[in-house]
Amino acid sequence: MFQILIKKNFLVDYLGHFVDIHNHILPGLDDGAKDIEDSLDIITGFNEIGISHIVTTPHVNQNYYPNTTESIHTAHNLVQNQLLHLGLKHIALESSSEYMIDSNFENLLDQKLIAPIRNKFLLVEMPFLQSPINFDQATFKIATKGYYPILAHPERYFFLHSNYKNYGGFKSKGISLQLNLLSLGNYYGKQVSKIAEKLLMNDYIDFAGTDIHNINQLQLLKDIKLSNRTLNKLIPILNRNVETFY
């Protein structure tokens, strides 16, 4: 599906047919796309590099982005209608969310106010500086509800960098790990990039996502160059995205 060509080291050359399961491109819902024009610019940019299957994941966070399935559905329909109007019928747009594990998350689970990816997977996140006290309880409850938790951008949680064994602990508990592709280009800093590479080399990463918020980040994604060693580890993950979510 994806082939390693020694002469090509740009990451973008391997993203044709990639299924993105983490981004913030629905308009006006969070810190991503501000309006429909932003959304269409990003999606058009995705299309130009071969990404035509997109699972949108706006933040659901009680304190900052209290989005609901209804508000997300409304924004999704707005974008979908514009894509059809522009003749971009081949772009498959699905909607889920990136759920912050906070004090309200388990209530959403209990009340079935969630939108899992493919009715099976829940993309979750936690604060960057410390783990929420209910993380273990919440991820266990995800499993009891019949879903599979995917932890977004594990390489970005700084409190885990000095406790690397916790990544293995997540895996042992059935939590999948989703790498941000921008982490491979030093976008979040050298330390995050270092941990991202280490997770890749240790075969801890299960899935990948762009986590794109704006058109500038998309351009930065296009500029990322990777070594063959990194590509050898990353390409099976890109394939897994396609096999699991296409």
From TrEMBL:
- Domain of life, per the record? Bacteria
| Keywords tagged on the record | Hydrolase
Q: Does the keyword Hydrolase apply?
A: yes
Reaction(s) this enzyme catalyzes, per UniProt: O-phospho-L-tyrosyl-[protein] + H2O = L-tyrosyl-[protein] + phosphate
Q: Which GO terms describe its molecular function?
A: manganese ion binding; protein tyrosine phosphatase activity
- This entry's Enzyme Commission designation comes to 3.1.3.48
Q: Which Pfam families match?
A: CpsB_CapC
Q: Which InterPro entries match?
A: Caps_polysacc_synth_CpsB/CapC, Pol/histidinol_Pase-like
For this protein, the record's SUPFAM superfamilies field holds:
PHP domain-like
State the similarity comment: Belongs to the metallo-dependent hydrolases superfamily. CpsB/CapC family.
Q: Which PANTHER family match?
A: TYROSINE-PROTEIN PHOSPHATASE YWQE (PTHR39181:SF1)
Stated name of the protein: protein-tyrosine-phosphatase
